[in-house]
What does this fold into?
Amino acid sequence: MTSDMAAELAAIEREIFARRPEHAIDPSLDRIVALTSLLGDPQRSYPVIHITGTNGKTSTARMTETLLRARGLRTGLFTSPHLSCVRERISIDGEPLSTERFVEVYREIEPYLRLVDEEQQVKLSFFEVLVGMAFAAFADAPVDVAVIEVGMGGTWDNTNVADGAVAVVTPISIDHAEFLGNTVAAIAADKAGIIKSGAVAVLGQQPVEAAAELIRRAVKIGASVAREGIEFGVLSRELAVGGQRLAIKGLLGEYHDLFLPLFGAYQAGNAACALAAVEAFSGAAGSPGLMPAELNGQDDTGEPDRPAHPGGLDDDLVRTAFAMMSAPGRLEVVRRSPLVLIDAAHNPAGMAATAAALSESFGPAEAIAVVAVAADKAYWTNSSQ
It folds into this structure.
């Protein structure tokens, strides 16, 4: 990268970061619809796997993309937030956009950003610009499939101008209550907005009230439902050096002896959701297998469940993909002696999952925790504090 290119990237980052930040929510799709319309609706030029939830979205998105890439598909991946560089949010074939390509994409859509800013009462936000860039970059690549992580919620999230052939909902709990509602049911109702007609909804383990809202949405619009713990899920899990070894029941078969180099039961659940999402996508894209009756526990004659059949993914491919999976910033080991871990848990449910994984995988040894909490997050242990 030349010094001139580095300077141009820095200038573009300043322009993007000067816009309305991610936490300043204005719940409307008007601006992103205006932008994508001017760009020719690039998000409709490839199939989408759309992912929402309260915790586990990014990990599940990264796992899903890894499985798809292992199948030989060209992938796009959009995640948020970034850890060290904004280019991380937009990846193609497992690699963030290069500096040169990030600059090119921004310059290509820049005139359309100005048009939308001039026409709308509220200018495009930081997040809306990045969503537009991702959709355009994936269309230009072109990708075979894009894995798109919701920024916040679902119904009014800017990514929801894309229609996912598969909609994944990871576990829902209370977070961003000022925008999404202060009950699990209200938050689930908002996140359910990414489930579209004819899609397959892959649902991670949910509180009863969240599951009810998600299934209600699916029934209303005619989407199929696959539930963790019923249609798919983790069959067995045991600790292993550097991670865990899993057996997973998928939608189209069972997969055994899978090494996942990540820690915690929650990551096993995320991996099961990712595997089910890719199986569902394979069926939706015309590969062997998924019909709605199979997701409802019947075969196409209306008889009860059939045993696992060979319509699933190749076992060796799945094992290879699982061994490649990563989740930066999620109980990530950054040093071994002394052991140093970093984690991005940002709500009570996420912190509880991290604490359980820390205890399980790293034992009862005394730990020193350095904790930073955003001002809008709940950090107390009970309502009286």
Remarks:
- The chain has one domain: 3-324.
- Residues 26 and 220 are 27 Å apart (CA to CA).
